[in-house]
């Protein structure tokens, strides 16, 4: 038996086979940003149930900011991956679906008992459905290019930041007693409807690709002024942004309808030009 399997000493210089391929850091970096945003969202839930509402809102706003950063970092570093896309979608559901609803429940909706909790469930499920639809629409190869400038329904970060309008108003001194709880409930359900609806919302993805040279310095100044206002008067600015965003939804829908009609007319005209003319065999032919 020993002749069949003679003992041998392994070669110390033989290279070891790698079980896994090394992953470039440019692929890992966007996922780290996504995980930090997820940690902020989960921490906001803890802060809310400890009664620290202002830090909880700030954590959600920071998570929304990082959500806008991670995708751009991935595209800049050419580190996009299917894993990163799935992780980002799951983090969005927690940060913008579960967390804001639970924060609002801890803030005022608990006054409505089971009815308030049902509103929390509806908002969270609406966010999950909205994200699932968004992921499916990304894989649609027949989607016209101009439609990429619009979201179908309210986007996830906007839904989360808009849902916290009652908190912004509370921080500004507006009384939020038990009598206001039904209004907050209706408002939250309305946002849930906007997220799962097909109402187009302008995404603004085409803004900022090319900036005229004479606008560069004014944009720098306006950016610094906006940042200063946000730091000095955070909840005033967030309230103004929320109301402005809600006011632009009908404008976005009207603009989408106009572009859709123009696109349909262009397609119909193109089909008319491609249609071959009827052949005629002579006078009296049918």
From TrEMBL:
<dbReference type="GO" id="GO:0003882">
    <property type="term" value="F:CDP-diacylglycerol-serine O-phosphatidyltransferase activity"/>
</dbReference>
<keyword id="KW-1208">Phospholipid metabolism</keyword>
<keyword id="KW-0443">Lipid metabolism</keyword>
<feature type="transmembrane region" description="Helical">
    <location>
        <begin position="180"/>
        <end position="202"/>
    </location>
</feature>
<dbReference type="Pfam" id="PF08009">
    <property type="entry name" value="CDP-OH_P_tran_2"/>
</dbReference>
<feature type="domain" description="CDP-alcohol phosphatidyltransferase C-terminal">
    <location>
        <begin position="214"/>
        <end position="250"/>
    </location>
</feature>
<feature type="region of interest" description="Disordered">
    <location>
        <begin position="267"/>
        <end position="286"/>
    </location>
</feature>
<dbReference type="InterPro" id="IPR043130">
    <property type="entry name" value="CDP-OH_PTrfase_TM_dom"/>
</dbReference>
<feature type="transmembrane region" description="Helical">
    <location>
        <begin position="114"/>
        <end position="132"/>
    </location>
</feature>
<keyword id="KW-0594">Phospholipid biosynthesis</keyword>
<dbReference type="GO" id="GO:0008654">
    <property type="term" value="P:phospholipid biosynthetic process"/>
</dbReference>
<comment type="similarity">
    <text>Belongs to the CDP-alcohol phosphatidyltransferase class-I family.</text>
</comment>
<dbReference type="InterPro" id="IPR000462">
    <property type="entry name" value="CDP-OH_P_trans"/>
</dbReference>
<dbReference type="GO" id="GO:0012505">
    <property type="term" value="C:endomembrane system"/>
</dbReference>
<dbReference type="Pfam" id="PF01066">
    <property type="entry name" value="CDP-OH_P_transf"/>
</dbReference>
<protein>
    <recommendedName>
        <fullName>CDP-diacylglycerol--serine O-phosphatidyltransferase</fullName>
        <ecNumber>2.7.8.8</ecNumber>
    </recommendedName>
</protein>
<keyword id="KW-0472">Membrane</keyword>
<feature type="transmembrane region" description="Helical">
    <location>
        <begin position="89"/>
        <end position="108"/>
    </location>
</feature>
<feature type="transmembrane region" description="Helical">
    <location>
        <begin position="27"/>
        <end position="49"/>
    </location>
</feature>
<dbReference type="InterPro" id="IPR004533">
    <property type="entry name" value="CDP-diaglyc--ser_O-PTrfase"/>
</dbReference>
<feature type="transmembrane region" description="Helical">
    <location>
        <begin position="214"/>
        <end position="231"/>
    </location>
</feature>
<feature type="transmembrane region" description="Helical">
    <location>
        <begin position="153"/>
        <end position="174"/>
    </location>
</feature>
<keyword id="KW-0808">Transferase</keyword>
<dbReference type="InterPro" id="IPR050324">
    <property type="entry name" value="CDP-alcohol_PTase-I"/>
</dbReference>
<dbReference type="InterPro" id="IPR012616">
    <property type="entry name" value="CDP-OH_P_trans_C"/>
</dbReference>
<feature type="transmembrane region" description="Helical">
    <location>
        <begin position="55"/>
        <end position="77"/>
    </location>
</feature>
<keyword id="KW-1133">Transmembrane helix</keyword>
<dbReference type="InterPro" id="IPR048254">
    <property type="entry name" value="CDP_ALCOHOL_P_TRANSF_CS"/>
</dbReference>
<keyword id="KW-0444">Lipid biosynthesis</keyword>
<keyword id="KW-0812">Transmembrane</keyword>
<dbReference type="GO" id="GO:0016020">
    <property type="term" value="C:membrane"/>
</dbReference>
